[in-house]
Amino acid sequence: MHSKTWMKYFMLTIALMVGIITTGTDIAHASKEPHYVITTDTTYPPFELQDKNGKYVGIDIDILKEIAKREHFTYKLVPISFNSGAQAVLSGQFDAIMAGMAITPARKEVYDFGTPYYKTGVIAAISKNSNIKSLDDLRGKTVALKTGTGAAAYALSIQKQYGFKVTYFNDSNTMYNDVALGNTVATFEDEPVMKYAIQNGVKLKILTKPANSGYYGFGVKKGHNQALIKKFNAGFASIKEDGTYDKIVAKYIGAKESNFAGSAKVNNSIWGLLKQNKSQFLAGIGQTLMLTILGIILATIFGVAIGILAIIPNKFSHGFASTIIYIFRGLPLLVLAFFIYIGIPSLTGHKLSALFSGLITLMLNEGAYIAAFVAGGLKAVDNGQMEAARSLGLSYGKAMLKVVMPQGIKLMVPSFVNQFIITLKDTSILSAIGIIELTQTGTVIISRNSQGFRVWFLVALMYLIMITLLTFLAKWADKKFGGN
């Protein structure tokens, strides 16, 4: 009976999780106007970026905003890395993508595109101090590419001809800095994006003339959201006709970061960057702490339930718990996040929010580690304690709850707090699925001002302060509850 009691509690926990999954993940918009969820990459200026107030701006953003106003639809804009966003549209997570996506034959197989809205070409760029004179000089060397982009596809198409090796990055600014530092010798990028980066301080220079000229397109999953495509086409025709499109493009092409920083002069000192972007940093810290706290709470509930199942003298419960611990400790956190956020919706057809997917990822991964040390802590309690409690007439469940667990918890306290610290650091991985926590906040700020060293110094300092405070908490908790 005792194993059935614990199994009942565990199944109740699972039922609550399922209830959360099936409610509130795809609530219909209350407006009478059609509502869509559209993904973008906010680290791709001048097409998508954030200003100092966290407002999305850029050619793509302004075009979409103007079209939505004229065609009477509303939308929620979800920032995420380009490659992840493109996959999420195909999985049904998003209705469309507006992220400087080049229209290619391969993409036409899986996407329907609206009217092409910007003609571009791919250029190669090198460090300012580089001695490379032409693409022929790339032979045997490594170039940096951004995952899933048209520029990357063009580079791969000429790779054999010029004999270079490639490495990949998920965001443009990390890629640029890798070339500027000399880790890679060149990169391939769309011309207007590279010109904007150089205009705003990226220490690169353009090596080649534009090649493989093509167009950017507004994309939806093939055969889906045709009404949205029609609205985009109608709205785009309207803004082209009255000159609004030309004004939007002129506003951003060749622009400097000061245009979007809120003042004529930008202070790029560490203090100046902190002051200018304090609201974004605070929002990023808040999101990180929220993910950490909710993640550790859910992981603790899940982990304790699995940990108890692991020590119950029942072959089924023990085997089940061991399997859960093995699977979710073995899966890399990033793989698990992508599986939940992109893989599951592809299978079920139901959308999951990035926040919900991130919390479930933390719950399963961190919970598996908690389950392991919970089981270890409970097993460390002398067997005589359970035997003595049972001999006094207590049931297995009451003996576990009132005798064994209070002693085991004292042994687990340091591990719990250490897991809290690990969870805080692990939240940074969730930026890959579009959660704007502290790490992604740093990436977005750098996309606007190209101050990689200073911004990452500030982000690292903020993490260090939070982790130091949690370390002090760990020591206090160990002394207070650990019995030392």
How would you characterize the overall build of this protein?
- The chain is α/β, with parallel strands linked by helices and 484 residues long.
- The chain folds into three domains: 2-22 and 277-481, Orthogonal Bundle (MetI-like fold); 35-115 and 215-267, 3-Layer(aba) Sandwich (D-Maltodextrin-Binding Protein, domain 2), CATH 3.40.190.10; 119-214, Periplasmic binding protein-like II (D-Maltodextrin-Binding Protein, domain 2, 3-Layer(aba) Sandwich).
- Helix content is 59%, strand content 13%.
- It has 19 helices and twelve strands.
- Strands 1, 4, 5, 6, 7, 8, 9, 10, 11 and 12 form a ten-stranded mixed β-sheet that branches. Strands 2-3 form a two-stranded antiparallel ribbon.
- A hairpin with a 5-residue loop joins strand 2 (49-50) and strand 3.
- Helix 12 (278-311) packs across helix 15 (354-380).
- It is elongated and about 85 Å long.
- The two termini are 36 Å apart.
